[in-house]
UniProtKB/TrEMBL annotation:
The keyword Lipoprotein does not apply. InterPro entries: HTH_LacI, LacI/GalR-like_sensor, Lambda_DNA-bd_dom_sf, Peripla_BP_I. Residues 6-60 form the HTH lacI-type domain. Pfam families: LacI, Peripla_BP_3. This is LacI family DNA-binding transcriptional regulator. It comes from Paractinoplanes pyxinae. Keywords: DNA-binding, Transcription, Transcription regulation. Signal peptide: none annotated. PROSITE patterns: HTH_LACI_1, HTH_LACI_2. GO terms for molecular function: DNA binding.
Amino acid sequence: MSDHRVTMAEIAQAAGVSVPTVSRVLNGQGHVSPRKRELIEDLLREHAYQPRISRKRPSARLIHVVFPEIDCAWELEHIRGMEPVARDAGVGLVVTAAARIVPGPTDGVVLAATSGSRRLTDELDRRGIPVVALDPAARELTSPTVGAANWSGARIATTHLLGLGHRRIAMIAGSMELLSSRLRCDGFQSLMGDSAWVEHGEFTYESGLTLGLKVLGGAGRPTAIFAASDNVALGVYEAARRLGLRIPDDVSVVGFDDVPGTQWVSPPLTTVRQPLRDMGRLAADTVLRLANGDSLADHVELGTRLVVRASTAEPNG
C-alpha cells in the first residue's frame, strides 16, 4: 500500500475489520472498541489516507444480487426474503450468476455464497458501492456478512443421530472452498472425533447420489448419513432406492437447509433448518441501510434448528 492512493478497503483489511468500521472511525462514530479504533487511526496516519471527495449520487433504485449459480430452491428462498424489503423501499432487484462486473448504476450489491472475484470487489470499492456478503465463502471479508449457525447446526444433526443410537454415521460434505461447508464438517467432527467418516463432494443431488452409492454399497455401510444439504440428501434417497435400502429402516438420513419440498418427499426428510428467507431479508435491509450511511454490525449469524420428520429412526438391530 505504498505506491498508490490507499483505499478504505485496504485499511480495513490491514486492521482486520470491515469497511463500515473504518468509516465509523473516520466519521467519529461509536460502536468501535478503543483498541480497534486506535489501530485504525494509526493505519490511517501511517498511510496518509485521503478520503475521496464525496459526491452524493442519485439513487439508482436497484440492488444487484450475485449468486455463483442459480439452480435450486436455496437461491429462490433468499430472493423471496429480499423481494419484500426491496419492494417496500421502492427499489428493484437485479439477480445475476457468476458476475465479474456489475453493469450500470446500483445502490448496493449482495454477494451470495461467494467472496466475489477480485475484479468485482475492486470495482465495487472503487465505485464506493455498499456490499453485503450473504452466506460468505470465506471469513476474511471486509464487508458486513449475514450467515447461519452452520457449526452448531451440524452438531444438532449429529447429536440427534447419536441420541437414536447410531454410531456408524457417514457425512457427505460440500465443497471445502465454502465456509458453510467447512463449518458443518467441523461441527460433525467435533462430536465424532477420530471415528468421523466424511466423504467430500458438492452441495448437489448428483454428489449425494454418487457418494451415497459409494458409502451404502460398500462393506460396513453406515446406519445413518448426515447430508450437508437437502440436495445431497435427496441424492442419497435415490442411492438407497437403487440399492434396495429403505429409509429409515436400513439407513437414517438427515439433511441441511429445509428447502421447500423436503416435507413432501417419501419419507419426509429430517433436516436442519437455516432461515434462508430471513437471511435474504436481512442482507437486503443491510445493504440498503449501508447505502443510507447507517452504522451496522459487521457480522450477523442467524440460528439453526432441527426439524424432525420420518427419515430418522433407531438403527435396525
